[in-house]
Design brief:
Rossmann fold, 16% helix, Elongation Factor Tu (Ef-tu), domain 3, 2 domains, 7-stranded mixed beta sheet, alpha/beta
Length: 279
């Protein structure tokens, strides 16, 4: 489905646009020209990978795939309009075209944790790449144990995938806890940063934890997980670095002896420690 040539974008068509928040949109895309998929009938990307998105006249930016490979015939990108490229993407409507290179990077080890109990911890738009893994696990529910999802946003208006989060929590064996940073009119849920939810998983230190969000949130979440007994190799997170080429050539994302675009963006905390990288 995706382009195997490293540097050549493929034209993709916007199938739908959904406003998730005041500054974030969900784009469902399909490629303009058909390409063979793998034999399983699933899309040939993996949970946690990203693509390079280009808009003519604006440039190119890396964006995580937020749909699951189990979903056929399309893929989805969650885009916050904060810069030149993402601002240009936000102007696109159904039927418009944009360029896609990839997928790039490694992936969340979802296949390797079959049979395990899992915790997903997301902050803000960091829920987007986790969504790919969450949807994959829920589509293959019998292959995994208990699932716990902790999600925090700055305000209730910043919560992405609000309707989906509610539906996830209605599934058997799935527990969802959400929070916003400060008390707000119209919000009756938990208040506090996402790390204040860690008490919900104090029993779960033998689970696998997947963490994604702003760097400061990742830092304190990992610290909190270690404090309640999590092993470094059971904490899986993403590193956020400027990725220009996506293929390990430009060197912009080189850190600790690794290229985040090719060796990452997904690492265990044990791997990050070996790289002597601060998170």
């Amino acid at each position: 489905m995706f382009n195997s040539k490293l540097y050549i974008p493929r034209a993709a068509i916007v199938e739908s646009v959904e406003e998730l928040t005041y500054d974030t949109k969900l784009y469902r895309l399909r490629f303009k020209y058909n390409c063979e998929c793998d034999n399983s009938g699933e899309n040939d990307y993996k949970c946690g990978q990203f693509v390079q998105v280009s808009v003519l006249g604006a440039g190119e930016a890396p964006i995580s795939i937020c749909s699951s490979p189990t979903q056929k015939g399309f893929f989805e990108l969650c885009v916050r309009g904060v810069g030149l490229v993402t601002g240009a993407v936000h102007k696109l409507e159904k039927g418009d075209e944009l360029g896609i290179r990839g997928p790039y990077g490694n992936a969340f080890p979802i296949e390797e944790v079959r049979g395990r109990d899992l915790v997903f911890i997301g902050g803000g738009i960091g829920l987007a790449p986790l969504r790919s893994a969450i949807k994959y696990v829920l589509d293959k529910r019998d292959d995994y144990g208990e699932v716990i999802i902790l999600y925090g946003a700055r305000t209730k208006e910043d919560i992405v995938f609000a309707d989906e989060i509610e539906k996830w929590g209605q599934q058997e064996g799935v527990s969802v806890f959400t929070t916003i940073d400060k008390a707000q009119c119209g919000w009756s849920g938990h208040v506090g940063v996402v790390t204040t939810l860690l008490d919900k998983i104090r029993h779960a230190f033998k689970y696998k934890a997947f963490v994604c969000g702003p760097p400061i949130m990742i830092h304190f979440t990992i610290k909190g997980l270690l404090d309640i007994g999590w092993a470094e190799e059971d904490i899986i997170t993403t590193l956020e670095r400027y990725m220009k080429c996506g293929v390990g050539k430009c060197g912009h994302c080189y850190i600790g002896g690794k290229y985040v675009c090719t060796d990452g963006p997904v690492f265990t905390y044990a791997e990050i420690n070996e790289m002597a990288v601060e998170v």
